[in-house]
């Protein structure tokens, strides 16, 4: 019998180590997602619980006790809200979509703040509307139930998204990783400064690298795009790539 493991903000704070999944049954728990909302009486707060076995998510539970909403999913058995089946929307166009994003990372004035601002401006210009729930888990639950069409946020922690990732997928949605652009830019800015040929080649490789598959999504290091379907997820992915490249070109003109 495998011994159960537990991953959460509290366990990581105790060990100071980045958690990793093993084949052991692992519970990934956030006892309060949307803490500021909870403190201020905002109903967008929840408990998020996921179970992974052999590194695969098999159970997802999100419970909002304020409004008595219980989202559940078991791998291969669909997603439910208070025992009623839920599905993502049928929308496949970003210009017709409502997207859930979070802006807390913009407070960090790191060298990549301009990239995050560029993405936000792109969402404002292209999407039908933007929502800010203040809870990653609730944002994913809203994608699953069709209340919003898509969700994009990074960086995150595994306990923020693990339950929601499975619920979205079981509701018919797609979850992929935004990784690639930010890492590539941080490590390879000097390549841009050599010559146009290298710059163009690098941009092409960067775009190719960004299109990771759903199977490559790493719930332990989540940078998340969740959408009603694969078509919409890939459109967001391409928008991020194009927008990040535009931001990097602006950086180069300032050097």
In words, what does this structure look like?
With 255 residues, this protein is an alpha+beta fold. 39% of the residues lie in helices and 23% in strands. It has eight helices and twelve strands. It has helices spanning 9-15, 35-39, 113-126, 136-145, 158-170, 181-192, 196-210, 230-253, and strands spanning 5-7, 26-33, 46-53, 56-64, 69-74, 79-81, 84-85, 98-101, 129-131, 150-153, 174-177, 224-227. Helix 3 (113-126) crosses helix 8, helix 6 (181-192) runs antiparallel to helix 7 (196-210) and helix 6 (181-192) runs parallel beside helix 8. The radius of gyration is 19 Å and the shape is globular.
List strands and helices in order, with pairings.
Elements: E1 5-7, H1 9-15, E2 26-33, H2 35-39, E3 46-53, E4 56-64, E5 69-74, E6 79-81, E7 84-85, E8 98-101, H3 113-126, E9 129-131, H4 136-145, E10 150-153, H5 158-170, E11 174-177, H6 181-192, H7 196-210, E12 224-227, H8 230-253
Parallel strand pairs: 1-2, 8-9, 8-10
Antiparallel strand pairs: 2-3, 3-4, 4-5, 5-6, 6-7, 10-12, 11-12
Helix pairs in contact: 3-8, 4-5, 6-7, 6-8, 7-8
């Amino acid at each position: 019998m495998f011994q159960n493991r537990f991953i959460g903000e509290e366990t990581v704070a105790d060990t100071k180590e980045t958690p990793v999944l093993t084949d052991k049954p692992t519970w990934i728990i956030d006892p309060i997602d949307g803490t500021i909302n909870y403190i201020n009486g905002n109903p967008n707060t929840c408990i998020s619980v996921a179970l992974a076995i052999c590194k695969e998510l098999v159970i997802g539970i999100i419970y909002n006790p304020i409004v008595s909403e219980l989202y559940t999913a078991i791998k291969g058995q669909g997603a439910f809200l208070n025992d009623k089946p839920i599905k993502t929307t049928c929308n496949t166009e970003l210009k017709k979509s409502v997207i859930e994003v979070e802006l807390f990372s913009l407070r960090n004035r790191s060298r990549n703040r301009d990239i995050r601002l560029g993405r936000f401006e792109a969402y404002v210009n292209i999407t039908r509307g933007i929502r800010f729930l203040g809870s990653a888990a609730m944002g994913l639950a809203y994608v699953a139930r069709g209340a919003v069409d898509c969700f994009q946020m990074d960086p995150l922690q595994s306990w923020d998204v693990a339950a929601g990732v499975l619920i979205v997928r079981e509701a018919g949605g797609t979850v992929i990783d935004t990784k690639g652009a930010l890492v590539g830019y941080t490590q390879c800015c000097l390549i841009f400064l050599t010559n146009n040929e290298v710059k163009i080649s690098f941009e092409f490789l960067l775009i190719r690298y960004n299109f990771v598959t759903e199977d490559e999504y790493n719930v332990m290091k989540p940078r998340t795009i969740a959408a009603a379907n694969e078509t919409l997820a890939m459109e967001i992915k391409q928008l991020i790539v194009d927008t990040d490249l535009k931001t990097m070109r602006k950086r180069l003109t300032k050097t």
